[in-house]
């Protein structure tokens, strides 16, 4: 069969990984086709992930701050929430970004093909459009960026709209009176934060013995304390065994050490992780190896076992984060464009990838966590600066946070950092830079930080470690 479209590079999927790869490749002169099954470019992150969740979290923050302002003698009264307008705001934010991407694709002459792509050979993908028509695209090189989708717990009545994944929760169809969140990870807790601020009674169940497993326990505590104060009911070491769609409510059976008293909920959000789409693109027809869980393994240049096919983003492994996907996308495009030119051979060199939970307070970490350091038997020391001693945090009336830096005891180089508190996500990048540059404690402690800022806490944590600050406790 003759190909309908021919190109040098085909990018499958237009999330942060895919659009970054396609735009970079086009900028480097490659004739590029971008295949996307949904109407809008941007993937999970822009359409149903990072961006809409942060727009809603901003609204949640405004509600909370307005209510808290009576502490300063400023009273706004009880908020009235018009859900249509809130939804409209979120959609406007998303629309602005996805339209921007469409314009950027056009400007670069990246040809966007709408439809679901599936490999038919190592150099061809067939794209099935929504209208039932198919197109055969022949490529010399390919970058797979097909992302991931929410894990659906089996046995749940998924055809009932009251059972939601994160995409359903972001649709904001209503504010349920009683919301159950299954999974106390980043996505579950961000959504719990939004719905609680909008007035839902929120219950969270988590299988592990702490919220946000993966982050150090001390970082999670200020968030857990605040959720408790706000009336969010959190149940650790507990799982859902069954959920049934009753007429009045979703009836849930739990098992575990801290089961909730309630078992009837108006809506249930399942946020128990994401599954990579590697097994859903006909990879076998191209000879690409896919793991049992659906991940595609790649080398340090993002190549799969088929050398002219690259893979990036959520489907190549953890952490499933947008900034990892964009970094990988840029790298894969540059390697693809520089094929055959040893001067242009690049590979993955980033040491660390920061993680941020945009909860209230935010939790951010990068590099080696204290837990990991201890588990690996690394000899580390920790500098910890409590925000109760920060003028800026006191002025913000948010002193529950702290900044901690993890140093190698032998070299005094920074290995990791964890920050909890308002704007922690904005503060963690400095630590990422310090780790990438191999900074030692003195580099951080002696860098003059502006006063009064929360960013000072990074330098002060270094000063706590090197012994310059001694009178904190
Ligand atoms: P995706 O964004 O998943 O994009 C893949 C694209 O490929 C999709 O558009 C899909 O339609 C398309 N596709 C798949 N298969 C095919 C096919 N066969 N044919 C055609 N097209 C196909 N990360 C952060 O870093 N920060 C955050 O704050 C954050 N918040 C999040 C909040 C939520 C609720 C969720 C769900 C995720 C969040 N993430 C966040 C994770 C982030 O969204 C992902 O890591 C990121 O989108 C991955 O990018 P990607 O390019 O690998 O794939």
UniProtKB/TrEMBL annotation:
Keyword Oxidoreductase assigned: yes
Keyword field: Disulfide bond, FAD, Flavoprotein, Lipoyl, NAD, Oxidoreductase, Redox-active center
GO annotation terms (biological process): 2-oxoglutarate metabolic process
GO molecular function terms noted in the UniProt entry: dihydrolipoyl dehydrogenase (NADH) activity; flavin adenine dinucleotide binding
Enzyme Commission designation: 1.8.1.4
Cofactor: FAD; (R)-lipoate
Source superkingdom: Bacteria
Cofactor stoichiometry and binding remark: Binds 1 FAD per subunit.
Catalytic activity: N(6)-[(R)-dihydrolipoyl]-L-lysyl-[protein] + NAD(+) = N(6)-[(R)-lipoyl]-L-lysyl-[protein] + NADH + H(+)
Further details from the record: The active site is a redox-active disulfide bond.
Family: Belongs to the class-I pyridine nucleotide-disulfide oxidoreductase family.
Protein name listed in UniProt: Dihydrolipoyl dehydrogenase
Taxonomic source organism: Luteimonas yindakuii
Gene responsible for this protein: lpdA
């Amino acid at each position: 069969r003759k190909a309908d479209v021919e190109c040098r590079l085909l990018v499958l999927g237009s999330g942060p990984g895919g659009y970054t790869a396609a735009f970079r490749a086009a900028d480097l002169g490659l004739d590029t086709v971008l295949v996307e099954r949904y109407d809008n470019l941007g993937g999970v992150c822009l359409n149903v992930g990072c961006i809409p969740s942060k727009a809603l979290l901003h609204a949640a923050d405004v509600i909370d701050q307005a209510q808290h302002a009576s502490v300063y003698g400023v009273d706004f009264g009880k908020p009235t929430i018009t859900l249509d307008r809130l939804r409209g705001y979120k959609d406007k934010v998303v629309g602005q970004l996805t339209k921007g991407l469409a314009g950027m694709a056009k400007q670069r002459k990246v040809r966007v093909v709408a439809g679901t792509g599936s490999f038919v050979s190592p150099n061809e993908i067939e794209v099935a459009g929504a209208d039932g028509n198919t197109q055969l695209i022949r490529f010399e090189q390919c970058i797979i960026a097909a992302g991931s989708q929410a894990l659906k717990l089996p046995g749940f009545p998924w055809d009932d709209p009251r059972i939601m994944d994160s995409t359903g929760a972001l649709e904001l169809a209503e504010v349920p009176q009683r919301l159950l969140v299954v999974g106390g990870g980043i996505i579950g807790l961000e959504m719990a934060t939004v719905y609680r601020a909008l007035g839902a009674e929120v219950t969270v169940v988590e299988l592990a013995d702490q919220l946000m497993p993966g982050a150090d326990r001390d970082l999670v505590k200020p968030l857990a304390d605040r959720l408790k104060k706000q009336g969010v009911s959190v149940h650790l070491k507990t799982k859902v065994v069954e959920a049934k769609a009753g007429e009045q409510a979703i009836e849930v059976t739990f098992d575990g050490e801290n089961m909730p008293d309630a078992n009837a909920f108006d809506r249930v959000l399942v946020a128990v992780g994401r599954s990579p789409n590697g097994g859903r693109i006909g990879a076998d027809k191209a000879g690409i190896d896919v793991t049992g869980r659906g991940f595609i393994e790649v080398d340090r240049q993002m190549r799969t076992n088929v050398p002219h096919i690259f893979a990036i983003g959520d489907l190549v492994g953890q952490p499933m984060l947008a900034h990892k996907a964009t970094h990988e996308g840029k790298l894969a495009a540059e390697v693809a464009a520089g094929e055959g030119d040893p001067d242009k051979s690049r590979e993955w060199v980033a040491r660390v990838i920061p993680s941020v939970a945009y909860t209230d307070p935010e939790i951010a970490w990068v590099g080696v966590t204290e837990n990991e350091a201890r588990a690996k038997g690394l000899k580390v020391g920790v500098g910890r600066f409590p925000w109760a001693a920060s003028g800026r945090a006191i002025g913000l009336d948010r002193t529950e946070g702290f900044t901690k830096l993890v140093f190698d005891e032998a070299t005094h180089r920074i290995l990791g950092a964890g920050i909890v508190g308002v704007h922690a996500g904005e503060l963690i990048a400095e630590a990422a830079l310090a780790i990438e540059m191999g900074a030692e404690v003195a580099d951080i402690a002696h860098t003059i930080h502006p006063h009064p800022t929360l960013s000072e806490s990074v330098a002060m944590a270094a000063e706590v470690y090197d012994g310059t600050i001694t009178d904190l406790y």
